[in-house]
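Researcher: I'd like a structural prediction for the single chain below. Treat it as a standalone chain; there are no partners to consider.
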Amino acid sequence: MRRIGVELAGLLAAVSGSAVMAQEVPPSVVREARVVPGLHAAGEIVIDRAGIPHIYAESARDGFFLQGYAVARDRLWQIDLWRKRGLGRLSASFGPAYVAQDRAARLLLYRGDMVKEWAAYPAAAKGWTEAFVSGINAFVADVEAGRQPMPVEFGASASRPERWTADDVVRIRSNALASNLASEVDRARALCGGAGAYESMRAPLEPATHKLVMPKGLDPCSIPKDVLDEYLLGTSEVRFDGKALAMAPRDPEVQEGSNNWVVAPARSATGRAIMANDPHRSHSVPNLRYLSHIDTPELKIAGAGEPALPGMSLGHNEDAAWALTIFAIDQQDLVVNPKGAKLTEVRESIAVKGEAPREVVLKFTADRPVIHEDAASGRSFALRATWNQPGASAYFNAAWAFTAKSWEDFRAAQTHWGAPPLNLLYADRGGTTGWMAAGFVPKRAAGDGLLPVPAGKAYGWNGMLDGALMPAIKDPAQGWFATANQYNVPAGYPHMLGLEWSNPSRMARITEVIAAKPKFGITDAMALQNDVTSPFARRVVKLLGGLEGRTVDETGALTLLRGWDGELGAESAAAALYEIWARRYLPQAAVKAIVPEAAREAIGTVALIGVVQTLEEGKLPAELSHAILLDSLGSAWAETARRLGPDPAQWRWGKLHVADFRPALAIPGRESEQRVGPLGIGGGSSTPNAASWSGDFLLTAGPSVRLVMDVGAWDNSVAINTPGQSGDPASPHYRDLFARWAGGAYVPFVWSRARVLQEAERIIAVTPGE
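Model: Treating it as a single chain, here is the predicted structure.
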């Protein structure tokens, strides 16, 4: 019998008939056996009560194979759709309506040397990935043979899952694009339209001393309004509602950021390092993260990652933990090619369901894909981005961390990191903690990345910055380190990394809380991840000091907000008024009052923080500032009353701000089964518990997964993943974590076999087969 079978049999025999047996393996545990062709040796998948798979295998190869099998068991429709979208294969399954999206996606594929691509990752990574996709394919074979049920979405869409290859995983780069193409276009169009003088109404550049410089030879009026349409199509999610993808203006307050922090043993309530991470991404059902645990003789890892990638992006091994947030390296430039520029054409055939294949033409320059051609001027526009470099597959370089046992190991891993650009935090069982920035940094011959650039060497890239030169801090003197996408480049650092960073409010609150506690524990970390206090809201409300209302509405609003502590709780009346005022009315009132009418259309995305900074600086006449504040506040009061009733004592932020998750493909007659929500929640884009919302107040982005790790005492770790681990609406794990997540609760994220068996719900014994 294999090691795992012996271990389980021995454990059961040792505790047979005792109270310990009931504790170790609950009697409710469901057992099943499966024969899985492609597996090399017997193994187990232990599903715990939260739906998290704990995988036991005889080799790392089999561990990744079973991870792929487990992911497919829970998320086959999701990962199959992810693969088809990324490779430009939607039309083959869903018909001609997706040909344009397929073409756009193919422009963004990695098209370089695959030998060099795989060489950029750990030597074992290709084998791990081959095993992982073999596990996915093994489950697909089970589905096709009727041994496992076909996910309902395939029947509803009259499609079938496809087989994977390892190259598929790393060639898709449309999820690796980071900073700052859209803002380049906005800025150029503002300069063209006469709104360039109002740059201060955008999010401020950091460092603040940097001054915008127009690239020589760039005509900002040469940038068409629709220049990013194909880029947006190629990076968008798949729609099944028959509507065209809406190219809506960017909302700078809808942020996909993240928080992480590490507390050293001297500041920790456990005497060990504590690490916390809550990546903020677009919410969906199922969501974009998946929790799992692999235990083999040669490799043991646990954490959260993208379900279509082997391993995990954040988590821990036996010795060390790591966590991530986006670090705003500017990895993109829009390149303007003159009329008559030489374009290389690549012709590809797109399979179309129900029709003959269609030939499409993809165009490239030395800067890579041409994402727009302007018929009127003859100019074309190319995307120059770090993703076309070998080693830039999104999150795939986390594979270097799987075997890191020391700061030096992790520092070496950091030098390989390509995309997306990250703040990486580290902690190990020996007590070492630290921070390092990671990601490919283009060395620009000229320019700062804030505007499109003319084609040619003058504004070209001269390779990438040596990863060993990225900033890092080992064992920070204050005993902790945190990041929240804020500007955190060390003073005096000599290399240009990026100039556009997130609102520092989340970091300010994290600092307030951690700094105030001499000893910081696991429960403190959980509470901070769910904190809904906004220092930025306090800052905005401070602008109202000394004002007197001119109307009943303005007076009521001033009374409600004065003295408010900035807590955006679901039960808060002030939070409801503040969010409506600050998001819907204050920026618009400032633009109307400050920007000439002829320039308003061109100004693009106005950021609340830019407007607030403009008002704080006191450069406007006092009467104008007061009018902006009071006019917008009165309008916000009136809208809040229309939405929540005339009595402000009955107003609640959670009555407007709701989590209501719906899948892309709604199945007729099963919509209620697929829907998760609605449930009122607190928070906003500027609180640690980030909860960005769209124009209809629906939650759009924030932390779908939260993880808190007790470094070295891994069984004490906790996690949550909303709405659940499974993508099957009929599964008990489709929505079982939703209410807990919304309420700030967690589930155990255990590590030792004894604790895994205590938490077990189902044990799937797997054996090799032909």
